[in-house]
Amino acid sequence: MTDHGADLLIRAAAVHTLVPGLGPQRALAVRGDRVVAVSPAPNGLDHCVGSRTAVHDLPGATVLPAFDDTHTHLVFAGLGAHDVPVHRARTIPEFLDLIRQRAETTPAGQWIRTTTNWQELNLAERRMPTAAELDRATDRHPVLVKRGGHNDVVNTCALRLAGITEDTPVPPGGVIGRDADGRLNGRLIDNALGLVEHLVPAPDRARRIEGLRLACADYAATGIGTVRDCAVSPEDYRVLLAARAAGALSTRVRALVSALGMTGGAQVEDLLDVMEDWRYSSDPWLRVWGVKFGLDGGLEAGATEEPYACDHAFSGMLTWEPGALVEAVEAVVRRGWRVGTHAYGDRAVRVLLDVYERVLERNPGLPAGTLVMEHGGLAGPEQRSRAVALGIPVTIQQPLLHDTAEVEESFWGPERVARLFPARGWIDLGAQVSAGSDFPVGQFGAMRSVWGMTTRQTVIGVKGPEHAISYAEALALHTTQAARLNGEEHLRGTLAPGRFADLTVWDRDPAHCPGDTLRDLTPTHTFVGGLLVTPSGGR
Predict the structure, then answer these.
(1) What is the pTM of this model?
(2) 369 and 253: one domain?
(3) Helix (H) or strand (E) holding 328
(4) N or C: which end of the chain has fewer CB within 10 A?
(5) What digits encode the pLDDT tens for the residues 32-89?
(6) What long-range pairs does 101-108 form, CB within 8 A, spacing at least 24?
(7) Tell me, what CATH number does 405's domain have?
(8) How far is Cα of residue 384 from the mean position of the Cα atoms in its chain?
(9) Which of 164, 197, 230 marks a domain boundary?
(10) DSSP letter string, 40-108
(11) 96 within a domain of the structure (yes/no)
């Protein structure tokens, strides 16, 4: 300890360090961006107090490490800060009116984008809007309505600009939607998204930076100190770098650079060439984790072994030919990067494990954790055992299940929805598993996710209670196990001397909060690197 002592001292009812074998502490001291000491006595670190020490005397509070959201989309949240807030609509007329209002203040010909965190079943009509309906909101602007990361709806103006007609070939692994009469309805899915999205100009950089500032604050307000953003384009990463330089990032960011929409190795090699400039970053706030692939669709196109409940002729779709994906993944790992691959349905999980097994056989000695399965939604017992045997970590997203259970039941039926994200099965097998939200499809929030994993509650009731896990296990999936996934267990995830001072303060012990109280609990303070990144009182 230097002459001025600690920069921060917290006295609390309990400091849960998550260090194995160490019971609750009562005081924690921080200097710079690191924890320097903990004590089981509330006044045990008073000798660290100097003239420059900020002291938080919180005798009723509980302190925990800050949480990681290991699969989310901060970039989408940043964009959504300025997009048309259609997630507030409860009917399609309200949805269209929000777009109409934006059109009134937007010069003709400029693109209009919407937020992505909405579900059609939250609309009274329980469906997506159509191109014809969007045309009624504006026919003077191209409109891009996104829902999550796998679905777009666009208006006729946007279809015209993209040159999409009824004769346009459907890209492999994509869907160009049509109505019952065979006419284009504006819907685009998975590998068809790029037909339009490449035309949408990037927002002004200053506006994007401000959006990221707001988004980071929203994540931190729920207790999240690090996000693993799983679909970052090269331009997105450049904006993140600019945001970091401007002091706009109040959460740490681990970026998966997106290969979504790619179908061949040459495209991936070009992406890797761009990534070379970011290989050696040592910035603890922002760095590239690796590359993100997608193997199947999302809610309505996940590749399943059995046909969909709503369409017995449909079993979802794969977006890569397996042999081509082997070559693409090999290109990434041979350059020393990690890979995270979206696999949602059980057929996609099986094919991904085939791909990863071939890559491991052909590239012996890959570091542990190089190949990660994102979601593993319907992974069954045999697939889970195989993933563990291969050493493949998996990320799960209980908030996604909570928010979309009704949508998914309409596609897959209740039995399969109850099997989604089987946390209990993964943990019992000794899998390396960590947790996130998949915002904008699921709602982010530290305790919201913990509550979901411990209760298996969804918008339509409890689904798959046999897959529930304990509070302590759920906490680990967002802290110690999350840091391990990011290769940072020596830096984060526990509150021990020498670790980053990434911590959260709660006005009650979350371990003893009942039901909905835990779901809605937010911290009074979130510190990242010793810096208070949320005001006292949370949000």
Answers:
(1) 0.88
(2) yes
(3) helix 322-334
(4) C
(5) 999 999 999 999 999 999 999 999 999 999 999 999 999 999 999 998 888 999 989 9
(6) 103/137, 103/138, 103/140, 103/141, 106/141, 108/140, 108/141
(7) 3.20.20.140
(8) 22
(9) 197
(10) SSTTTTGGG--TT-EEEEEEEEEEEEPEEEEEE-HHHHHHHTTSB-GGG-SSHHHHHHHHHHHHHTS-T
(11) yes
